[in-house]
Amino acid sequence: MFRVVRKREWHPTITELWVEAPRVARKYRPGQFVIVRVDEKGERVPLTVVDANREEGTVRLLFQKVGKSTFHLSLLNPGDAIADVVGPMGRPTHIEDFGTVVCVGGGVGVGPLYPIAKGMKGAGNRLISIIGARTKELLILEDEMRAISDELIVTTDDGSYGMHGFVTDALKQVLDRDEKVDMAVAIGPAIMMKFVARTAEPYKVPLIVSLNSIMVDATGMCGACRVSVGGTTRFVCVDGPEFDGYQVDYDLLIKRQQMYLDKEKEALERFKRQHPEAFQGVC
Description:
Layout: E1 2-11, E2 14-20, H1 22-27, E3 33-37, E4 45-53, E5 58-64, H2 68-74, E6 81-82, E7 84-89, E8 100-106, H3 110-122, E9 126-133, H4 142-148, E10 151-156, E11 163-164, H5 167-175, E12 183-187, H6 190-200, E13 207-210, E14 226-229, E15 232-235, H7 236-239, E16 242-244, H8 250-257, H9 261-274
Parallel strand pairs: 8-9, 8-12, 9-10, 10-11, 12-13
Antiparallel strand pairs: 1-2, 1-6, 2-5, 3-4, 3-7, 4-5, 13-16, 14-15
Helix pairs in contact: 2-9, 5-6, 6-8
């Protein structure tokens, strides 16, 4: 069992947990994820590690409540235990001194982006960070991203904070400058990463994206997380989660993400009837 030691509610739909997982904390590297199972009957859910405290033996998990399992996980409080936290899994991010790196995060994608951006800055890169959300209330990790960035640009879809527009608008402004960008990293909803790729491709900037496909065993055995990259089938769990952003078939990824939507809605409705307290403040 893995004990929850700290909890923060960023928003009624976004929860952060620090969880005791000493072996994961010791081996974790930016870009990797864990598989979480709330209890013995729970679904196996992939969550990217946002941070790790090796001395304390804890990992930081930050997630959006969208399905039964994430709502269930959000009910846990300090002192409660999670049945499984397995990892670290996936290939870590390749980090080196590229020169100038632009890191783009949308929504809760800013969570997994943070350790990568921090690693890029630590390797000596000039770091330009772009983070965005639909509204100001949904922004996360702004202070942490600002602290590690040479420049931080914040966008909101509704203009309630920062630049009015999408992260792609801010990215285009950066790429239009008289400044060479040597690498870009993007994490967020699949549709966001698709348009980041479309925005960046004319500038011939290398682009890495981190994919969030459906997973079951996360060992490459079940094939649930398969995606098409450059016309070749790849498994996000063992070949990724990061891939060349220009080679990903985003339309297929989005289609596969929606394969079990009806079942997910049914499970969520059952859980909502059993645990209405988990949905307080959620529209």
